[in-house]
């Protein structure tokens, strides 16, 4: 698929510097009969346009792999990639030069709750974002929120990103490093200056002004996710689920079933987009399954793992061990339902945490950082290898988009 032109504009950044500038041709405006869910300049399709954004830690090449056509498009070059995150459409690749390159995979899904719309457009590089590398990115149709290890939060306007520009919102003073967009607001875990006691979740508008503060505390917040059930924050004593109705935000604590050691708490969440179940590692020998519908945690004795995730909705819990074997576990009792050797154990050890599992409703994807191989797995059929995909260079970092 050819790379489409993108527009870059000069814009002041609260937390970053400026972009280069360029131009693009704006698409024709929609007519009066534009269908529900219309996205200007994009093509609506009948099925999800799933793609993988892959970065090579050696060459710095960033490639978008179309999973329908298997066509690979090199879209950017990043000096010494050292991390990558995604928000469902855009990939954020951090380099050793202190700059994060944002690339547009050209594929995304708009979820209206009772139905979804699938879209595609051209692939391209949006621009550069100087500053601290984001550890996580969470996005909705209004904003993409980047959280860094130091606690710094950047809020990027989603419409501007879609138009090929980087337009940051106001700063988020007092943030602890966990933030999520929800219902036109940004939820930020904060500690008031000089205040004693645990952090709380602040509800802010896109200009950074606080409009509400939730009463439920979240001790030592770390890790956040956006789901159909609401926004989730990882806390020292469990999780905080934040929901919105008619403009009002409320929070519900989901405590761990028993006291949890600091090294075994959930610190980051993974899972299938659209699911109400999340996964997290629980130290060196176990993992957590968080069911937001049932409001329960389940500790699963996975043994040592390098990556975990969950299909949810009666699907399996997936765990990849340091032996390179992918295992499907029953999320209720941890029983092994299937296993599939995928990677060489030495390659997994050398990868130092770069192996990931990306997931959608039908498939899982596991990258081999020692080469350009990506394994496509049918997680509903005893972990059958559906395809072995190839990208140029090495698949050091990988995210899935278009889901």
UniProtKB/TrEMBL annotation:
Endpoints of the signal sequence: 1-24
Coiled-coil boundaries: none
Key words, A-Z: Signal
InterPro entries, alphabetized: Haem_d1_sf (IPR011048), WD40/YVTN_repeat-like_dom_sf (IPR015943)
PROSITE patterns xref list: PROKAR_LIPOPROTEIN
Gene3D superfamilies xref list: YVTN repeat-like/Quinoprotein amine dehydrogenase
Domain of life per record: Bacteria
Keyword S-adenosyl-L-methionine recorded: no
Name of the featured protein: ABC transporter
Source organism of this protein record: Pseudonocardia nematodicida
